[in-house]
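ok new one. same drill as before - structure tokens go in, u give me an amino acid for every spot. 163 of them this time. try not to just spam alanines like last time pls lmao
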């Protein structure tokens, strides 16, 4: 169900997606509200689970994670039980940052982080290929991250002046 948000709510979301450590008072100053209504709006966005959680984004390369790959999976069988078993098996691995079910040629797409190509190959051979009912998997190594964002920033309509 889509929530009814106004311009101030969207402004709050835009600000917090850029920097979730900003204080409620600062958010209020930026959107033109005092502390209490700003605080109540943020709490309401959290209660509705529009704001799901606050996280720290890390520099993967400084952690020694030198490789990102997308691995597309085709299952041998697409029964509900088979798909649920695959999902339960795959979400346990910290190297996998995202798992999405897709339409078309592939059943799933995984975003996988690895230290290097050897550790990625080891993960594919010893983990992915051992999961039951996988028919095929195809890897795509990321060469360059052209755009990387975690925020969905809604463009607010600009007001039109008569005249």
């Amino acid at each position: 169900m889509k929530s009814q948000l106004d311009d101030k709510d969207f402004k709050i979301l835009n600000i917090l997606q850029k920097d979730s450590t900003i204080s409620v008072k600062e958010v209020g100053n930026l959107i033109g509200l005092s502390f209490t209504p700003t605080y109540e709006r943020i709490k309401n966005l959290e209660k509705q689970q529009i704001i799901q959680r606050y996280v720290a984004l890390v520099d993967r390369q400084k952690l020694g994670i030198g490789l990102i790959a997308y691995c597309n999976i085709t299952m041998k069988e697409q029964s509900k039980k088979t798909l649920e078993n695959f999902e339960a098996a795959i979400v346990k691995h910290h190297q996998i940052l995202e798992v999405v079910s897709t339409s078309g040629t592939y059943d799933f797409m995984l975003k996988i982080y690895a230290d290097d190509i050897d550790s990625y190959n080891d993960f594919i051979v010893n983990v992915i290929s051992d999961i039951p009912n996988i028919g095929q998997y195809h890897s795509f190594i990321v060469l360059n991250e052209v755009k990387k964002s975690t925020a969905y920033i809604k463009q607010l309509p600009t007001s039109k002046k008569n005249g």
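The chain has a mean pLDDT of 92. and btw The radius of gyration is 21 Å.
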